[in-house]
Amino acid sequence: VRSMHNLGKRVWPLLGNLFDPVLTDSVLSQPQKRQKVVAMLRDSLVRTDSDGINVDFENIDMKNKQDFVLFIIELKKALQPKGILVSVDVTRVNADPFWSGSLNRTELGKAADYIVMMGYDEHWGGSSKAGSVASLPWVREGLLELMKEVPSHKIILGVPYYTREWVTNL
Predict the structure, then answer these.
(1) Dihedral (C-alpha) 76, 84, 86, 111: value to the nearest 10 degrees?
(2) Contact between 70 and 32 (Cβ < 8 Å)
(3) What is the three-state SS of the chain?
(4) Which residues neighbour 19 within 8 Å (Cβ) at sequence distance 6 or greater?
(5) Rounded to 5 degrees, what angle do the CA atoms 159, 60, 93 make?
(6) What is the mean pLDDT of residues 111-119?
(7) Mean pLDDT of 83-94
């Protein structure tokens, strides 16, 4: 962290949930566990002189939709006095309840300093159809949808630095 700060860079560790809805539920649904995680994160981020934290919870059960918002509210409340910012990754809106429907973008946008739209995986590795990782129309549409729920000054676009090689029987 010190080396990066000396280079004028800001350091934001990533907190993920391993794409595990059961693990996520076991932490988010219990206020005491949430508070313990928030306290541990606060102490670690202060100790390491981090500038912010990026929260990337994916594959969340719908029953934890409000729990996740509460977690971000509690985390922001604990970090704000220390000057540590909070960003939350969200998928582009889609029909999948675990990967999209379980994210209350409006409330997350109110609670966090930034919302990072994952502008990639339009066609993912296991997709039944070959296609772009992030076509411009698809990303643009996703941003316009997100701006209906989150103020534009809080939105960061996550862009892919990868492509896919598709094998077809054409």
Answers:
(1) 30
(2) no
(3) CHHHHHCCCCCCCEEECCCCHHHHHHHHCCHHHHHHHHHHHHHHHHHCCCCEEEEECCCCCHHHHHHHHHHHHHHHHHHHHHCCEEEEEEECCCCCHHHHHCCCHHHHHHHCCEEEEECCCCCCCCCCCCCCCCCHHHHHHHHHHHCCCCCHHHEEEECCCCCCCCCCCC
(4) 58, 59
(5) 45
(6) 98
(7) 97
Q: Over the stretch 21-75, which tens digit does the pLDDT of each residue have? A: 999 999 999 999 999 999 999 999 999 999 999 999 999 999 999 999 999 999 9
Residue with tokens 């590795």: 125
Both structure tokens of 163? 């492509």
Distance from chain centroid for Cα 112: 10
pLDDT at 170: 65
Say which residue the tokens 């993912």 belong to: 124
